[in-house]
Amino acid sequence: MSEKVRWGILGTAKIALTKVIPAMQRSPWCEVVAIASRDLAKAQTAAAELDIPATYGSYEALLSDESVEVVYNPLPNHLHVPFTIKAAEAGKHVLCEKPIALNAAEASAVLDVRARTGVRIQEAFMVRTHPQWLETRRLIKTGRIGTLRSITSFFSYFNADPANIRNHVELGGGALMDIGCYPITISRFMFGAEPRRVLGLIERDPVFNTDTLTTGLLEFVQGQSTFTCSTRLAPYQRMIFFGTEGRIEVLIPFNAPNDRPTQILLDSETIEFPICDQYEIQGSLFSQALRENREQPIPLEDAIRNMKVIDAMFRSASTGGWSEING
What we know:
Blueprint: E1 5-10, H1 14-25, E2 30-36, H2 40-50, E3 54-56, H3 59-63, E4 70-73, H4 80-89, E5 93-96, H5 104-117, E6 121-123, H6 131-141, E7 148-158, H7 175-191, E8 197-204, E9 211-219, E10 224-230, E11 232-243, E12 247-250, E13 262-266, E14 269-273, H8 278-291, H9 300-319, E15 323-324
Parallel strand pairs: 1-2, 1-4, 2-3, 4-5, 5-6, 7-10
Antiparallel strand pairs: 7-11, 8-9, 8-15, 9-10, 11-12, 12-13, 13-14
Helix pairs in contact: 1-8, 4-5, 5-9, 7-9
């Protein structure tokens, strides 16, 4: 196998420290060589706990490290585009957490910097490469449930912490940006198309102004998708696909565990998938694409299209009517 791809981590976000870095360190394709924080002590603590060789007290310093080939960007949402651009201009490939931007117009700058620099950039939708989703898509495409006509999904957790970045609207917080993006991307993935228009209903926190209860209806040529997401409800997630001849239910669609098998239901049949880590798969496939000069698993253009649907959801909620998908 080729030499491992050398990764640098921007920031000490919980998802990076508890999920992404440990997973990539188990991958035969990835080597985490550096981590940065604006607080050097935080970077040093994380590096000591995770056995990362190099630490930096600024993101820019890590981007100057010539040994780093690709950057993982799990910074708060409002910093996704600025530091993805800085990383690309420093010659680094980028795996950026979702959502890739605060809106589609901002995201277009990422397309521009990719064209300018020639680096690879991908949004970190780890669910899109999990075996349970690849099999669900295969079953749908091969007609096992007839023609897919309707999708329904639910994703929620409870978080009322004023200090949490997910409760800061100016930082890109709120339910739709944090978790509503998942049923949107999966609906597009399963229909293999873009919605023509969307309808959004949003309830906002009176203090934070973030959306805390959001329901969306996506109209595709082939059918419809509905979802509800919330940051003020008991934790739950489920996604169901209804066809003309059957249904598929994905039991743990988004936070798939890495310590036990996952399952989907094909009508009354249970299909089980071996234990795997979707973050390890994500890092491995992106690294493999770089080393072997092959197509990356999820094109950057897909991230832009997902942002356009999110934008339309917000427009619809503000106007009270249907919103077309721009572009």
